Amino acid sequence: MPLVIPVVLGSVRQGRNGLRAARYLVRCLEARGHEAPLVDPAELGLPLLSRMYKEYQPGEAPAALERLAATYRRSDAFVVVSAEYNHSIPPALSNTLDHFLEEYFWRPSAIVCYSAGRYGGVRAAMQLRAMLGELGTPSIPSLLPIPEVHKVLDEDGILLQPWLERSAGRFLDELTWYAEALREKRKGGVPY
Question: Angle of helix 122-135 relative to helix 91-98, nearest 10 degrees?
Fold first, then answer.
């Protein structure tokens, strides 16, 4: 049975390389038969967090939040694509994630990190791992770092270097295992 796995992009910068990685992951997930909507903060135009989605009265949340909440509620897992800004999480990603809470519960996440340099954004990934756990969508053990992302993927997310295909395959195999296992457990209820 196909999974629903939104790919949450974390950058709104002009010329952002993260879109390359996000497009690639959407394509990989769809090739496996899964639904992989792209959550792009540049397109969503979410306000800076002044109140969470759950703090709005029914029908009063901005339309973008309502649409995103509907997507998240039917999701089985999340792929989070993050750059590294000052050894940390991009502010647009934090803002996008922080609007929600219960919508993440009992669903795994997977971290894809990237950079123009050799470290592939792993310092941000460590902080993101803690944040995702606190949100209720704990990350799988593996990461998918993409160093020198502009040399690995073109602007449309097409592979330029074949090593990523094998790494991404193992990474998505792991995420699929966790997502299917937790989906089955959610059917029987959750601890609270």
Answer: 10
